Amino acid sequence: MTFSDAIRTCFSKFFTFSGRASRPEYWFFFLFIVIWNIIAGIIDWQFFTQVAITESDEVKSVTATSSAPVQSIVGLIVFFPHLAVAWRRMHDTGRSGLYALLPILLILGAFAVLIFGIGIASSFQHGGTLDILFTRATLLIVIPTLIVLVVSPLLVLWWLTRPSHPGTNQYGPNPHEVAQ
Q1: Are 89 and 23 in contact (CB under 8 A)?
Q2: How many degrees, rounded to 5, is the angle at CA 160 between CA 154 and CA 164?
Q3: CA–CA separation, 142 vs 41, rounded Å?
Q4: Sorting pLDDT into bands at 50, 70 and 90, what band is 25?
Q5: What is the pTM of this model?
Q6: How far is 101 from 20, CA to CA, in rounded Å?
Q7: Is the Cβ–Cβ distance between 51 and 64 less than 8 Å?
Q8: Is 13 exposed, middle or buried (0-12, 13-18, 19+ CB in 10 A)?
Q9: Average pLDDT over residues 114-125
Q10: Where does the record locate the signal sequence feature (predicted)?
Q11: Is 79 exposed, middle or buried (0-12, 13-18, 19+ CB in 10 A)?
Q12: Is 90's pLDDT higher than 70?
């Protein structure tokens, strides 16, 4: 599969989460996303960046801010095709497409632990034993969760780089064998 074939395939299967996607299809589309994000970043930098200079007591500060509208539009355009091709790529390695969402689901879980754990602790008297108990229990849960949050994207990345599952699996035929 060529670079242009991968882009054409991914945009034609915009919301297709069934079937399988080969490694070249996924990684060429990922390269396309990176290239367009760089181009969008340059456009945002050139046309949508505001620079503010502040001076006070021999200290000069320069601040550049941008709302990045072009990068936002590019991100919205490629979000679903990228999710769909990652989902199909997981199918190609013999895994459920839900594994592509693993880091996002873990981040949501970590935020829930932080919000509810610290929220419960703050509802008790400050400095009381239950306050300390819930705060420490939250930390005991948050530290392993943070470790998993660091490891899970690397695990998903490794799965996305694995070779195709040979032959037909539960998600369909091997893309390399069908193309030949």
Answers
A1: yes
A2: 145
A3: 34
A4: very high
A5: 0.79
A6: 17
A7: yes
A8: middle
A9: 64
A10: none
A11: exposed
A12: yes
End-to-end CA gap in the chain:
11
Q: Supply the DSSP string of 31-67, one letter for each residue.
A: HHHHHHHHHHHHHHHHHSEEEEEEEETTEEEEEEEE-
> Is residue 124 classed as helix, strand or coil in its secondary structure?
coil
CB 60 within 8 A of CB 53: yes
Rounded to whole angstroms, the Cα distance separating 23 from 157 reads: 12
Q: What is the pLDDT of residue 36?
A: 97
Q: Which of 91, 106, 83, 86 is nearest to 165 (CA)?
A: 91
> Bridge-partner residues for 66, per DSSP?
49
Q: Higher confidence at residue 56 or residue 22?
A: 22
